[in-house]
Amino acid sequence: MPDLPGKMKYQMVETHEELKKAAQVLAGARSIALDLEGDSMFHYGDTLCLAQVSDGSRTWLIDPLKIKDLSPLSAILGNTGVEKILHGSDYDIRLIRGRLGINCPPIFDTELAARFLGMARSGLADVLAKRFGVSLDKKFQKDDWSQRPLPDEMLAYAAADVHWLIRLAEMMKEDLKRLGRLDWVEEECDLLARAPDRRRENGPLHLRFRGAAVMDRRSLAILEAILQMRESLAQERDRPPFKVLDPDAIRQIIQQRPETDQALLRIKGLGRRSEKFRAAVLSAVRSGLELPESRLPVYPKGERRRSGKSNWSPLSVQNLKEWRNRRAAALGLDCSLVCTTSMIQALAARRPLTPEALDQVEGLRNWQKREFGAEICVVLRRGCPKK
Predict the structure, then answer these.
(1) Do 167 and 56 form a contact (C-beta atoms < 8 A)?
(2) Which regions form coiled coils (predicted)?
(3) First vs last Cα of the chain: how many Å apart?
(4) Which end of the chain is less packed: N or C, by CB atoms within 10 Å?
């Protein structure tokens, strides 16, 4: 398997004038390949550290840490006449919104396309190896991209990430078209490009903590206090929150509810922390324990639970899952692509019995309605309780 060239050809863009010139060239492209590097593994928040852009023949590495005015880049990424091709676009879209304050449709996500083509391994290195027989070294993926100067090897790595994307997208579109799935991916990509960033919404931090949905109200109060403390320390120290206190340690604290330093020291990993840090943790635990019953948080439940116990037989969800699994196997796709478990629960709660009624199910894609709507209604009728 051939390696990618050790020295990828690229042009560094470190001034506003250089960015304007690059943007003038890119404005004439129908599609551009795009990848972004951030520093959320090393610092607090999401900072855009490098933007890699290619029109298929040339590649530019744009340094946002050296260019204050990125309006020429915003003009290109915000241009709805230019398709942006990315691989695994969620983080990139978040960085674009955070630094540029814009959405960037239309996009084509080759990672998503790989999954809809039935590829079990959809990472960029795996996809390039399968499609082009090239070896892409991902060793710099989790490095600190805020460091300056960036080593030549890291810059070459960054350029390689966009080198193949336009060719890859063209091939994937042909394959998706042949399978009748291109419109599926296009709709998913459009939703990705326009989806709100839930991380930026105001509200309790515990709503974004995995496992919070099954916690009791007192545990949620302790969790919220710990997360607020962690967020404050992370911002103060300019460190990612998970490096201040990792989720596993938080879960242990909530389970054990330590009220003394001795009890806290028994939790794995906290013995090495400073006395001041441990005092902050104990203060957060105490705050959660002392919160009045009337003010304890309540985790919002899904549609099925909000509406009370459905008048559907429990078989309705089971039947939908069995149908979904059979359909996914026949298509060679992961089950979640055909229909997620949360969507199955929403369908069971809404119980649409006609294709027209499917429009009332929030989140159900248009392609899912076209492709599976009639089948879903048949399955739901089987789960309807006898009168």
Answers:
(1) yes
(2) none
(3) 64
(4) C
Percentage of residues in the chain having pLDDT higher than 70:
92
Position 305 pLDDT exceeds 70? no
Return the SS3 of 229: helix
Q: Does 75 fall in a domain?
A: yes
Do 280 and 369 reside in the same domain of the chain?
Answer: no
Reading the block at residue 60, the tokens are 């530019």
Calculate ∠ Cα 327-331-335, nearest 5°: 55
48 and 172 inside one domain: yes
Tell me how many degrees the CA angle 96-163-122 measures, rounded to the nearest 5.
75
Q: Can you tell me the distance from the alpha carbon of 304 to that of 55, in angstroms, rounded to the nearest whole number?
A: 47
Which runs of E-coded beta strand occur in the chain?
11-13, 31-38, 48-54, 59-62, 83-86, 107-109
* Domain end (from 181, 200, 219): 200
77: amino acid identity, one letter: L
- Spell out where 27-149 has E strands: 31-38, 48-54, 59-62, 83-86, 107-109
Confidence label for 386 from pLDDT (cuts 50, 70 and 90): low
Give me the pLDDT at residue 270, please. 82
Q: How far apart are CA 43 and CA 22, in angstroms?
A: 29
Confidence of residue 200 (pLDDT cuts 50, 70, 90): low
Does 128 share its domain with 229? no
pLDDT mean across residues, the chain:
91
Of residues 295, 255, 261, the one with CA closest to residue 276: 261
